[in-house]
Amino acid sequence: MVAGTVMASAQCRANVPGLISDCSKFVQKGGQQISPSAACCGVVKRVGVGCLCSLLSGGVAKKIDTNKAVFVARSCGLTLQPGSKCGGT
Q1: Is 28 helix (H, G, I), strand (E, B) or coil?
Q2: CA proximity to 53, closest of 21, 14, 18, 84
Q3: Which superkingdom is the protein from (predicted)?
Q4: How many CB atoms lie within 10 A of CB 2?
Q5: Phi and psi dihedrals of 64, rounded to 5?
Q6: Any long-range contacts for 67-73 (C-beta under 8 Å, 24+ apart)?
Q7: Beta strands in the chain (DSSP E)
Q8: Of 5, 43, 62, 72, which has the most beta carbons under 10 Å away?
Q9: DSSP string for 34-48
Q10: Dihedral of CA 25/57/55/66: which sign?
Q11: Band of residue 88 on the pLDDT scale cut at 50, 70, 90
Q12: Alpha carbon 12 to its chain's center
């Protein structure tokens, strides 16, 4: 199980460059909440909810608006259950 967790974590982190390049403007602090682009949604769907939530913890959560990140995930068709903990949200 530990090996699987480490592998999943590595796979999540491998998607960070795509998330940054395609989605950063939709989750940055300040400004209005806007719907994500098709390219951003493509990356978000490949990453999945579990990875997104694990990436939104710690230092990353301090650099982005987690409410916008949740909005982007939901706008891209991912399901986040009400009351679930994802990053700081």
Answers
A1: strand
A2: 84
A3: Eukaryota
A4: 6
A5: -130, 165
A6: 67/33, 68/26, 68/27, 68/28, 68/33, 69/27, 71/33, 72/23, 72/26, 72/27, 72/36, 72/40, 72/41, 72/44, 73/44, 73/49
A7: none
A8: 72
A9: -PPPHHHHHHHHHHH
A10: negative
A11: low
A12: 10
Condensed to tens digits (0 to 9), the pLDDT of residues 28-76 reads 999 899 999 999 999 888 887 777 777 766 566 778 888 898 899 889 9
b/e for 35-45, b at 16 or more Cβ within 10 A?
Answer: ebeeebbebbe
Q: What is the chain's alpha carbon radius of gyration, rounded to the nearest angstrom?
A: 12
pTM: 0.75
